[in-house]
Amino acid sequence: MKKASLPLPISLLAGLLILLFPFLAFASEATGETPHLTGTGLGITALIIFVFAYALVIGEERIHMRKSKPVMVAAGIIWVLVSIAYAAIGQIDKVEEILDHNLLEYGKLMLFLLAAMTYINTLDERNMFAALRAWLVSRGFSLYWIFWITGVLAFFISPVADNLTTALLMAAVLVAVASDRPQFVAMGCINIVVAANAGGAWSPFGDITTLMVWQAGLVKFHEFFDLFLPSVLNWFVPALIMSFFIEKGKPAAMNEAVVIKQGGFIILGLFIGTIATAVMFHNFLHLPPVLGMMTGLGVLKLYGWYLKMSDNDPSNDLEDEAVGRFNIFTQLQRAEWDTLMFFYGVILCVGGLGAFGYLALAAQVMYVDLGATWANVLVGLLSAIVDNIPVMFAVITMSPEMPHGQWLLVTLTAGVGGSLLSIGSAAGVALMGQARGIYTFFSHLKWTWAIALGYVVSIWVHLLINTSLL
């Protein structure tokens, strides 16, 4: 979920090829139950198709093509190649079984995210986020305190709302109060990106990667809190360094009044209750969390019916929100469908490469030859270059044998590694668009050394305080 206005696609593609090169170099050493088809013409063709499709994803802003389109097409072609390859070795019956597993993983992820996105969109429609922004810009805080307040809020809102929504909300505050101070806005955006990504790393709801790890049963809900202190330090270290360079001054307070629409706080309570339901379904009933989320979405739909019927203006059409009545299906339509379809393409592409044996090779090279700790550190660095979704899905699909503390480590690094570059996370890419020309790839790169220091400190602290889990 990334990009920029420089020759980045070439360098990013090179990074992806570096990631994939060991698969080809060590093809003869693969072991396991998966057929070793990486050296075949079909296997290499599948790899090339994926790399080409991902290059188009990386160049999304330049070529103006939505990121879901190339990976969805690539997924279909790769699975055709898988089917042909398995038929040639007499194992065609395995293809549907492998594909069904990938589709099940995607279905659970998609429905979970759809429920969460609908709640976030509904809270936005009820002016809950606008009211928070209005309150912040009307307080008259100094630039120094705005820097810290937006960072703290980003860190603590992202575990619930997700890092992208949180970053956009906090950046809107920066732009509103300091649009005439580009250097401050740029530093504030960096702080928000790092804080949002770090905040999302210690919650199953804060990032797609943490959600995947939780739904896969690799880390339990309460165990994510073991990452709280490392996540705090991942944000706090670079924030503290940057705070010494914040401009002095106090922008004029802005008088912005926003009225929260009927039911705003009730919907917030329903969202919190839905999250609690998902956790209880998973922890106590051993049901998938998505069932709790979809049940909560059903409750929201029922409350949406109440909001619509409580509008007593007979001139308002029953199904038309544009003329006044609330319509929950409008919020469903506002879900990030391109993102949801992108996840479909990525999961099936990675699953198809796994069927050829590439993930088994990756597990051998990274988790056996390098060792779990260095492999998980590398996952974080790769997530700054390549989207962390396919990287984490690949790790989960590899299912390397490693201690529980290492699963926590890869959850941490995949979540926060994207902060190293502006293109390394959805939050960074979104803010480059929101503060176009102010927050850029190079303005972020200027502080990458400080962010990297926070990355190292967070890993060191995790290894220190969670030694018993390693």
Automatic annotation (TrEMBL):
<keyword id="KW-0812">Transmembrane</keyword>
<feature type="transmembrane region" description="Helical">
    <location>
        <begin position="136"/>
        <end position="157"/>
    </location>
</feature>
<comment type="similarity">
    <text>Belongs to the NhaD Na(+)/H(+) (TC 2.A.62) antiporter family.</text>
</comment>
<dbReference type="InterPro" id="IPR045016">
    <property type="entry name" value="NhaD-like"/>
</dbReference>
<feature type="transmembrane region" description="Helical">
    <location>
        <begin position="407"/>
        <end position="427"/>
    </location>
</feature>
<protein>
    <submittedName>
        <fullName>Sodium/proton antiporter, NhaD family</fullName>
    </submittedName>
</protein>
<feature type="transmembrane region" description="Helical">
    <location>
        <begin position="109"/>
        <end position="124"/>
    </location>
</feature>
<feature type="transmembrane region" description="Helical">
    <location>
        <begin position="373"/>
        <end position="395"/>
    </location>
</feature>
<keyword id="KW-0472">Membrane</keyword>
<feature type="signal peptide">
    <location>
        <begin position="1"/>
        <end position="27"/>
    </location>
</feature>
<dbReference type="InterPro" id="IPR004680">
    <property type="entry name" value="Cit_transptr-like_dom"/>
</dbReference>
<keyword id="KW-0732">Signal</keyword>
<keyword id="KW-0915">Sodium</keyword>
<feature type="transmembrane region" description="Helical">
    <location>
        <begin position="71"/>
        <end position="89"/>
    </location>
</feature>
<feature type="transmembrane region" description="Helical">
    <location>
        <begin position="184"/>
        <end position="205"/>
    </location>
</feature>
<keyword id="KW-1133">Transmembrane helix</keyword>
<feature type="domain" description="Citrate transporter-like">
    <location>
        <begin position="73"/>
        <end position="415"/>
    </location>
</feature>
<feature type="transmembrane region" description="Helical">
    <location>
        <begin position="341"/>
        <end position="361"/>
    </location>
</feature>
<keyword id="KW-0050">Antiport</keyword>
<feature type="transmembrane region" description="Helical">
    <location>
        <begin position="225"/>
        <end position="246"/>
    </location>
</feature>
<dbReference type="GO" id="GO:0016020">
    <property type="term" value="C:membrane"/>
</dbReference>
<feature type="transmembrane region" description="Helical">
    <location>
        <begin position="37"/>
        <end position="59"/>
    </location>
</feature>
<dbReference type="Pfam" id="PF03600">
    <property type="entry name" value="CitMHS"/>
</dbReference>
<feature type="transmembrane region" description="Helical">
    <location>
        <begin position="258"/>
        <end position="281"/>
    </location>
</feature>
<dbReference type="GO" id="GO:0015297">
    <property type="term" value="F:antiporter activity"/>
</dbReference>
<keyword id="KW-0739">Sodium transport</keyword>
<feature type="transmembrane region" description="Helical">
    <location>
        <begin position="163"/>
        <end position="179"/>
    </location>
</feature>
<keyword id="KW-0406">Ion transport</keyword>
<keyword id="KW-0813">Transport</keyword>
<dbReference type="GO" id="GO:0006814">
    <property type="term" value="P:sodium ion transport"/>
</dbReference>
<feature type="transmembrane region" description="Helical">
    <location>
        <begin position="447"/>
        <end position="465"/>
    </location>
</feature>
